[in-house]
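Section 3.1: Structural characterization of target chains.
Under the original work plan, the team committed to producing a structural model for every single-chain target entering the pipeline before any wet-lab resources were allocated. The record below documents one such target. The sequence was received from the expression subgroup and is listed exactly as submitted; it comprises 342 residues.
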Amino acid sequence: MADIVTRNTPAREEWLRQLADVITDPVELLQHLQLSEHPDLLAGATARRLFPLRVPKAFVARMEIGNPADPLLRQVITQREEFQQAPGFSTDPLEEQHSVVPGLLHKYHNRALLLVKGACAVNCRYCFRRHFPYHDNQGTRANWSIALEYIRQHPELNEIIFSGGDPLMAKDHELDELISDLEHIPHLKTLRIHTRLPVVIPARITPTLCQRLASSRLQVVMVTHINHANEIDLPLQESMTQLRLAQVTLLNQSVLLRGINDNADTLAELSETLFSIGILPYYLHVLDKVQGAAHYYVGDDQARAIMGQLLLKVSGYLVPRLAREIGGERSKTLLDLGLRQQ
């Protein structure tokens, strides 16, 4: 096990302080942004009954005061459209609410998702797991032990994906113990961490965490979830620099969201800004058809047209793969653009 610094470090205390400094009332959020006079936004406040609002003030600080169309606000604010029952949308769009053991999803042949923690720093309104039964898949040491035994018994697995919720809701000493257990399983080669927490609270990337990832025998990949260039600020850039120094491979996945990033110019700016802080665009997902999020949906034909325009604006290595995930399939499904890429 890697040497871990004292748990009560200032860096640790800072991200936990910011994690607790949140807004959970839609009316309070709108008042903070001087938008309390917008009846359409206020009308969505009751949607918090369907899926609680939660957004740290560290993320709110990147929103534009007085702008009801702010792309960060639109990702987190409750909306009355969430009450609409959309045909073809379900509470389990990826058919993953039946884990092989509590907290472990073996969806793909060589890799499995470990739901490290069920909570998130921010509740994104389009979340495909907004209805997920986290109470049956709790991120506890007892469930981790069961999952670890399953992983030991399946040598076809060479990659474990930390997911959630958000896996970085686990504290550094918990992650250290879990990574150490994985390192003792000889057939594992890669640890992938899917997270939005460092985007919302860049202080989550502590020196202790970087030290632990740098010392791992596993190849470490971190996949951030950033949908718009406005989410990227100097603290996030500095955190990503620390991860790169720790030899962590940085990728990004986004969701194509109506009214937020559904045009080529916005996606081009996102790709270029990601690259400027050392992150490569990886996937652009069409929206998973989860009930309560149909108002964000962009159809396949429009998605392909947007990607065709994006190909003309940025270099090929800055073009994410347009994909969807289909429940029961053994891999993601790429949407063919029928275009040449350079």
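The mean pLDDT is 88.
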